[in-house]
Please model this.
Amino acid sequence: MKFAQVLIILILGIVAGIAGGLFISNNLNFDFFNKETSMNITSTVKEILPNAEYASLVYHYSSVITHSDSNKFFDFNIPFTEKKAIYTIDGTVKLGLNCKDISIDNRYNNIILRMPAIKILSHEMFPETFSLYDEQTSIFNRYGLKDANDIQMAHKKEMEEKVSNNSGLFVQARQSAEQQFRLFIESIPGVKTQYGIVFEWQM
Model:
């Protein structure tokens, strides 16, 4: 083999080696950059979101409570001991989530938020609004303070069951949370133009 041919092969080998090294280096740097960017955006989103319970919907209600009762002997109502009353009372039920339970991922230019199920965070009734509208009592059976407390507690449980079975309220609470969290995330510089935001909810 002539010297010129050997020299050409040697030069081609060096060029190929350099090109391969640059290709591998660029790929490694690209992967590292992607991972680093993904970690940075994930941690930034975590920092900007609330870190406690978040009420995404407050449900206000004003209820009319109809109550009746009689003194009993075993399971039988005692005649002339029936009492009836109609009350009104106001309250609020807060629906939301604990933001500590949110997990965040970043894939294919999407920021993915895996959200916990919406739940009742609190239920407050306002005793000062507990008003008597109508009352019929017997001299043998009158309403007292204990009756008022029992009626309010029974109604509170009833309202929580009613809210829990109202799927529309939970849809509104999820939509409200998504809208607010999207505003939080899109306030991060560059996010709105580079990333989509995806919400995945537990039910």
